[in-house]
Fold this sequence. Notes:
CATH architecture of the largest domain: 3-Layer(aba) Sandwich
Shape: globular
Bound molecules: nicotinamide-adenine-dinucleotide
Number of helices: 15
Mean pLDDT: 98
Number of strands: 22
Distance between the termini: 64 Å
Low-confidence stretches: none
Helix content: 40-55%
CATH superfamily of the largest domain: Aldehyde Dehydrogenase, Chain A, domain 1
Strand content: 15-25%
Amino acid sequence: xxxxxxINGNFHNPTNDDWIDNYNPSxxxxxxxxxxxxxxxxENAYIAAKSAFPSWSQTTLEERSRIxxxxxxxxxxNLQRFAEAESKDNGKPISLAKAVDIPRAxxxxxxxxxxxTQFASESHESIGLQAINYTLRQxxxxxxxxxxxxxxxxxxxxxxxxxxxxxxxxxxxxSEVTPMTAYLLGEICNEAGLPKGVLNIVHGLGTTTGQAIIxxxxxxAISFTGxxxxxxxxxxxxxxxxxxxxxxxxxxxxxxxxxxxxxEDMLSxxxxxxxxNQGQIxxxxxRIFVEASIYEKFKKDFVEKVKQLKVGHPSKDDTNIGxxxxxxxxxxxxxxxxxAKDEHGSxxxxxxxxxxxxxENGYYxxxxxxxxxxxxxxxxxxxxxxxxxTIMPFNSExxxxxxxxxxxxxxxxxxxxxxxxxxxxxxxxxxAGIVWVNTWMMRDLRTPFGGVKASGVGREGGFEALRFFTxxxxxxxxx
Length: 479
Ligand code: NAD
C-alpha cells in the first residue's frame, strides 16, 4: 500500500518520486512505500498552511471545537481499521492499539476541542495608575509537528490537536517508521470538514523531510517528540532562528519499590510499566530499584510473572508482547543485552530472540530482566527503549534517591510506598517532570507533561499546550 502526502486536503506523490520501503515488523516484509519528501514538498505544505491561516485563525471557537470533536468521533467509528493499521505498522499487539493508541488519539481531539472553549487569557488592572492590561493569546501561524514511532497516532495527534485548536495551521511529519495511521488521518480530517490546508502531512526521513521543516524560515514553532540526540540537533538548527520549541525527549525512568507498598498491585503494574508496548514507551520504568528487605521475594515473583508473558503475533488476542518496531531497533536492543553481560549483569529471564511459526522474519524478543551489580553500568544509564529492565536492591531513601537522579534523563519516576512523609519528600526531590505514586501511566490530559534535563524542554498537555501554540501579546490601556 503506497502512502501519499496530504497537502491542502488532497493526496500527492512526492515531487521527486523518491520512495522509502515500509516494513511490517511482525513478518519483516515490505508492505508498502512511503514518500521521502523534499524541501519542495514541505514548501507546498507550507504554502497550503499559510493560505488557510487567515481564515482558520478567525474561525469561531465553537466551529473549531465542533470539527475537532467530529474528528474524534470518526476515529472512534473507525477504531478497528485504525487499530489494525497501527498494529501492522508498528508491531504492537492489536489489543493494545484498540485499547490505548486509537482511543487516546480520539481523546486528544475531543479534549482539545473542549479545552479551546475554556481557554482564557489574563487581565491585570494597574490600580492607582488608571490603566488596564489585557493579554491576547494569538495563534502563531504555521507550526511544525514531528513525532516518533512508538505511539504513532497517539503522539502525532497530541501535537496536532492543540495546534489547530489554537488557530494555527500545521505542517506535520510522522515517523517514517510508522506512517500509516497519520496517512489515514487525512481522510478523516476531510470527512470531518477540516478546511483544506489547516493540516498538512508530509512523509519522509528525518534528515530530509524533518530537516526541511525545522529549517523552514516561516515555520515559526516546532513541537517535537523523539530521541534526545535528535532534539539537540533540532534545537541547534531552530533556536538561532528564534523558533518556539517544545522538545519531548528520551527517558531512563526509575521505578522505586518500598517494602510498605501494596505488593500485588505494585507487582502487576510493574510488569506493565516494564513491558507495555514491548517496553517502547518513553515513560516505561526501565530501572527497578527494590528495598533490600523484599528484594529476593520481588525478584522471584517478578521473574515468574514476566516468564508468563506471551510473545506472539500482534494480531493474536492472547499476545502480550508483539514485535519490536524495526530490525535496526531489534539489533540495538540485543546489543544492550550483550553489553549487560559484559558488565557482569545476570540475565534473570529472557535475552533471546523469539521465532514465531509462520512469521520467522519478524522482530520478536523475549521480555528481559537483568540484575545489575551497580547503578553506574551502561544498561542503567542509557536509554534502551525495548523489552529490557534492570533490577537492583537499595537500603535507604537517600541512597535510592541519589541513584534515581544520577542519570542524564528526567522524564518520569514511579514510587511504590504507603508512607506519606516519604512520598512527599521523594516526590519533591526526584528529578523528573512526572512522578507517579502507587500507579503508572495514569493520565489526566489537563496536567503538564514533559521532562527535565536531557528529557526535554517545555510542557505539553492541557492549557500548557495551548499556551505553547499561541503568542501572548499584552495590551495596556490608560483611561
Ligand atoms: P527519533 O528522534 O529518531 O525520531 C523522531 C522523529 O524525528 C521522526 O519523525 C524522525 O523522522 C524525526 N527526525 C529525525 N531527524 C530529524 C531531523 N534532523 N530534523 C527533523 N526531524 C528529524 O526518535 P524515534 O526513534 O522515532 O523515537 C524514539 C525516541 O522518542 C526515544 O528516545 C523515546 O524516549 C522518545 N520519546 C519521547 C517521548 C516523550 O514524550 N518525552 C514520547 C515518545 C518517545
